[in-house]
Specification:
heterodimer; A: about 170 residues; mainly alpha; about 0% strand; B: about 150 residues; globular
Chain lengths: ~170, ~150
């Protein structure tokens, strides 16, 4: 385990050097294997982030639509409410998507920083705004587009930081 | 007063949930095999982690606080305040998980927080998206705040 962490740390240092070398000269003189490992893990992170964001926003959308069609909880006998919940065509797919979101997020935590993952997943708000405008046909106000722009800028900044910084610690 | 107490509970418990889940997941090594035959094992290995379960408990408490808040507070103030959880998450990551939060990441987090506040404040569907877990959307229909109807 310790050995693995050390090799991770070495890998991280190397990849930092590689990035420095890349940005300095645009050329690459370092071990190819390390680069491959890093880029594969970046792809994995990107894929899991996309899955988490899509599952989160679509899952919440389906749940919101589904719950909108439910009668009031207080005014319905409980077993009947449960039946309506299960029979509702939006609730179960929404729940499945939410479970996928949770699994993707937890998996991300197993190799990436919380301070990286949490702001990146905020892209869900962007997807939700787009969904509201183009799928639900709601008018999205200027203020909200401004918020979307700010989130995109924030995500762009976070994206420029290394995914996992815990390995850096000596 | 109660409003602010509930906001603090939502933010702090929600971030505690994230930190505990992240801590629980970080301790077990990277999950790498997601083939269908391994998926059950992956899920089982997650469910067996005590810190993750504790994190879910915190998330649930945060969610109930949100429910309580929605029943008493002005949404236009209350819901954007919960965007502060991004800042608290980052603080938690810095001090409890010992992550190195680069200034670019801090800047990004501040931009995201400001963006989320704007987005949630003006949105027609304030509870549609949340990082606080899947069930946040389920709150929406029971609380008919203005502007929520299509």
């Amino acid at each position: 385990m310790v050995c693995m962490m050390q090799s991770n740390r070495r890998c991280f240092r190397n990849s930092r050097k590689i990035r420095q070398a890349l940005s300095a000269s645009g050329k690459l003189f370092t071990s190819k294997r390390v680069v491959e490992t890093r880029s594969r893990s970046q792809w994995k992170t990107a894929i899991f982030l996309v899955v988490a964001v899509i599952a989160n926003s679509f899952g919440n959308l389906l749940l919101a639509i589904g719950m909108d069609r439910m009668p009031s909880f207080a005014g319905t006998p409980f077993p009947h409410y449960v039946y309506l919940l299960v029979a509702n065509p939006y609730v179960i797919p929404g729940t499945v998507l939410s479970a996928i979101y949770m699994l993707a997020q937890l998996s991300l935590f197993s190799w990436a920083d919380l301070s990286f993952v949490a702001p990146m997943i905020a892209s869900s708000y962007v997807v939700t705004a787009l969904l509201s405008e183009f799928v639900l046909g709601e008018r999205v106000e200027l203020e909200r587009w401004l918020g979307v722009l700010l989130i995109c800028m924030g995500v762009a900044f976070v994206m420029r930081t290394p995914t996992d910084t815990k390995a850096e610690e000596p | 007063m109660v409003t602010w107490l509930l906001i603090v509970m939502i933010v702090v418990l929600g971030s505690a949930g994230d930190v505990l889940c992240a801590k629980g997941m970080a301790s077990g090594g990277e999950i790498s095999n997601f083939s269908p035959s391994h998926l059950g094992g992956v899920i089982r290995s997650i469910v067996e982690r005590r810190l993750v379960i504790l994190g879910w408990v915190c998330d649930a408490l945060s969610f109930f606080s949100l429910l309580a808040l929605l029943s008493i507070a002005q949404l236009s103030i209350a819901v954007p305040a919960t965007a502060l959880s991004f800042v608290v998450d980052t603080l938690g990551a810095r001090f409890f998980l010992h992550e190195h939060v680069h200034w670019k990441r801090w800047l990004g987090v501040l931009f995201v927080t400001a963006g989320v506040i704007l987005t949630v404040r003006s949105g027609n569907t304030p509870q549609l998206t949340g990082t606080r877990g899947p069930s946040a959307a389920a709150v929406q229909p029971h609380h008919h705040e203005p502007g929520n109807h299509k």
